[in-house]
Amino acid sequence: MDLGILGKRALVCASSKGLGRGCAEALAQAGVSLVLNARGAEALEKTAAELSAAHGVSVTAVAADITTAEGRAKVLAAAGDVDILVTNAGGPPPGMWSDWDRDDFIRALDGNMLTPIALMQAVLPGMIARKWGRVVNITSGSVKAPIAQLGLSNSARAGLTGFVAGTARQVAGHGVTINNLLPGIHDTDRAIALDGGVVKAQGITMEEARAQRAATIPAGRYGTAAEFGAACAFLCSQHAGFIVGQNILLDGGAINSTL
What we know:
Strand content: 5-15%
Radius of gyration: 18 Å
Number of helices: 8
Distance between the termini: 28 Å
Shape: globular
Largest sheet: 7 strands, parallel
Order of helices and strands: EHEHEHEHEHEHHHE
Helix content: 40-55%
Number of strands: 7
Structural class: alpha/beta
């Protein structure tokens, strides 16, 4: 399918690897020029070179901590006018409700709620003026079904979801859509880290931990960054203009919910 976004320009956050890279690659395949951001310069530059060589699009790499005001300013200055924004950030650490203090919650909110909101506030005026734009926020399946040990993530991502619910409906009439993609378990560094916690807690092997979690997914496997990226690219396409303010699960059926 021709996504109809050849020549558009996208800013994709946390895109040197994992789900962010999957989204960047799918957009590059559709002919979108990219501005990639991550904190680690080496991995980011490598990803930028690979995507540019593979798909023949312009790729700009900006190493910065997007959760800081200075980092956002640097990225946004390099990005200029973007047609597509994909927000993404690593999730806070797991734990118990009793483990966290106010500073832990502030860090979680900065990374997974306030940063995507600030980025949207920065790029939405330009999208509105040009009468076209796409925003996709990578959040979490925990928005639909909270995960007990991910209380920090549950809290921050729920706040972002509430902001998007109202804002998406305010900008839709200008040709701008905002939607959230909610990943379940995908084969990324985040999954490895969480599986590592299971290994430590239960005294089992990594293979056993992965098999244990895969058994909870009706699809019987972890998701891939490529299929996640394809879903993101569709939401950014010309064909998705009537999808507004939605929270779309990509979890292999793991969350057992009718709605």
